[in-house]
Each structure stands twice: as structure tokens, then as C-alpha cells.
Hints:
By secondary structure, the protein is mostly beta strands. It has 6 helices and 30 strands. It has a 6-stranded mixed sheet, with no helix packed on it. It has a 5-stranded mixed sheet with strand order 3-6-7-4-5, with no helix packed on it. The longest helix has 14 residues, at 298-311. The radius of gyration is 40 Å and the shape is rod-shaped.
Amino acid sequence: MNVKKSFILSGILIFIFTACKPHVSINEYNDIEYKSALTSDCSTLLVFTENTSSNGYDLYSTESITLKAGSTVNDITKQIPGFTVSFIGQIDQTAYAFYSRNTITATFKLPHESKDFVVKGKYGTDISGVHVNLETVKFPAEDITISENWHKNHKITVNFKTNYGTSRTKEFDCCTEIPLNSFITKDEITTEDERNALTIGTLQWIDSNNQPLTKIEKRSEDLEVRASWKTIVSPQKNSNVFIEGRTVTLPYGVWISPHEVTQKEYVNITQKSNPSFNSSNPANEEIQENRPVEQINFFDAVVYCNLRSIAEGFTPCYSINNEANPENWGEIPVKYDSDGYEQWCAVSCDFTANGYRLPTEAEWEFAALAGKNYPYSGSETLNSVGWNNNNSAGISHEICQLEPNDFNLYDMTGNVSEWCWDLYNAELFDSTPFNGPSEPYFENNNLKRSSRGGSYGANATYNNVYKRNFSDITERVRYMGMRVCRTIATEPEVTE
């Protein structure tokens, strides 16, 4: 079989393969008489297949068979893939069947402008009819179409988007594998919210099915990749939150304030007088209004969060009886038998809202540890990072005066204790969700919520970064303040 001709038509290169005229070049079979039909019965069949290299035929098989006189090529039932019986011959009682290669058309698809394309392998159909990547083109039994993996030789644009709006657009050569681990780094992120989101949130790239991506496979089209903020915290040594058997998933990218809420911030938002015990006589050269607010109960903290969210145009996180505006909640309870106490205790939190809220205990501890295993937030030495009963002179101090931790958060140890969202439970379990226990804990008829961080009046034991604590939710004490955070990146909605 030889290639007779080739030509290009409408961007398709077609090769037509045709069978040669029957010719037997094997000397011992030169006296074969070609027949349109056998003239007598035959008991033996010799099968030959076309050999395109020698322009002849090769013996394929010898078979015992009964063929009656008058048999034609249509009576030869033996099938050989890629060949068709073309003619027969006879010598005495031996029949000869000659199989020629099938005539097929192999169509190779080409781009319209080849100079703008590059070949990235072949793709076609193998002899069994299955679509495969082809290293070589074998002779099939039927017409085939073989597509070279042509890709336009150009740049592709990849748009990398994070859930809170940051995007980076970069160009790459088409048909190359694109890594994802260097597209948005901490140094590239410029806004305060984005920088601090790295505190409680690990950036993961995801595909259109919300599945994690580590690379983009070779492709030739522009695409968009989205980011998901999620942190999975394994058990930590010495921790009473990230305990053995409990793997905590922090499902959001969270901005956490680098400092505790100040007296100035609290008064400006609530439009109330300063509730703090330490409302005068600051330490030398410290600014009074920048001392942390304290002597607030849990409900005071919740009200502040929603009022600040509304003032700054964010969606409030907290609601009571489906109402988010604290002005409609009534008087803040100050003890367990106050009017409306039970309704206030049922306050709910929407963690997907972007307003201000209290951190969960897991979020707080993760931020306080900042990837380290220090006994105090940011240091082995208490006095360098936290105001305590040994260095505070018995008073609170202006925020951000001591060293921050590795997440650039100040006063996570000492100064004032900080309310957390969680219902308090003395023991956490592997099934406890990231936002704390679901069962309330009461003591002396008063509901307990978690608090963390020690205080300026506490010793080294109570200022330990792993120390868990709690307070009555109506209690207002001079050591208790707050720090706020915001969810800034939830699980994204994927659009095609």
C-alpha cells in the first residue's frame, strides 16, 4: 500500500491510502491461478496479507477448511483487522486467499493559520475505537480523524481573585502548567483588612467546584481562579481548646483588631459615658482615652459591635428576636433577674456577616498563639508583652505600649481580659464546633461566657496564653474589656 496523493482543503490535510494491484512476489506461488470462483472442492486454505514494504504478500496462516466448488471471495469468512480479502486462487485442492490492506482516509485537522499555533501532541482514535493520546498513527480498519493538539501560540490571562475583592491579573504562555503558591503573598497585600486577614485564615485557591487547587493544568484559554480563606488547626501542645482528637476548622477569613477597644472608641460609638474603672490618672506619658475600655458586660460588648457595624456601613452580626438594631433591644440586663434577661441570653450571631463581633475562643487562641508555642502571646517573658500584677502598678495602660505577637497583635496577654463569643464549658470535646459549645453553663442562675487573655491585675498563671476563663454575662468588672473582629471572606459563590 502506498500513499497516492495528499492535498489541503479548507484547513484539512487529507491522506488517501489505497490498496496495490494484486501481485504475488513469492516464487514458490508464482503458478497460482487466480479464480473468480473455485473450480473444485478444497480442503486447505492458505491466507496471505499484503506487505507494503515488499510490495507483495506474506503468508499469514494455513488452515484446514472445506470450501466447495463455486466458492468466491464472499465465502471466505476469516476476518483480519485492517485487511479485506480481495481475490482467491487455487492449485489442486488448496485454496489461496489474498488480503489487501483496507482503503482508508486519515484526516488530520489543521488550524487555519498554522503560524499562530503550536502542536502539543496528537489526539485521535486507536484501532479499538477508543479516544487516546497517540504517539504514532497505526493503520486502522476504518476511516479516522486525527487531531493534532493545536493550541494558539499566545499569552493567556489568569485573574486571581480573593473573596474580599483583591485581584491580581497575570499573563502566562499558553499550554504551560501554572503554580498557585506565589500569586498573592503577604507583601503584595496592602490594606489593613487584608493584612490582618492572614492572622486568622489561610489562603487556599479553589476551582469551580470549590475543590482546593495547587496548580492549574496546561490550558490555552483565559481563566479566573478564586481564593478561599480557611484554616484547619490540629491539636496543639498545652492547649485546652485545640485538644487531642479535635481538629478545628476556622471557615472564614477574619480581620482581628490589633488592639483592644479603647475608651474613646467605646464612648464615640455608644454615645454613653465612659464606664471604665480606670477612667483617670493614666501612667506617665500615656493618653487616657487610649486606655482599653473595661467594666463592661457581655451584652455591652454585643451592643457596641452592632452599633459600630451600623455606623460604619457593615452588616451587623448579632440579633435578638430577629432584630439587629440594639436600640430596639431594650435595657441591657445587669443581673440574671433583670427584665428581658432570657431574650438577651438568646442573642444569635451570623458569622457570615461582615460586621464587628467578638472572636470565638478558637479564633482568639489561634490569633494569640500566632504560630508559636510561647506561654504568653508573643514571648517567653510575660513583662515584655503583657501588663500584669507585676508590672502594671495596679492600673490599665494605653494600648500598644508593649511588644506585639508575630501576628502584630498587641495586649493579647494582660491589660484587660477580653470577652469571647463562646458559651463556656469547662471541658471541650472533639465534636465541639469552632464557635464553641451549644449547651449553656449556668452558675448561681447566671449564664457564663468565655473570656481570655488575663489582665493587668492577674499573675503569670492567669496570664498564660492557654488559660481559659469565664465570667457572668451580666458582670461588669474593672478587669474585663473586649477586642473586635470581622469576617471579611466567607466561602465564595462560584459562578461559571
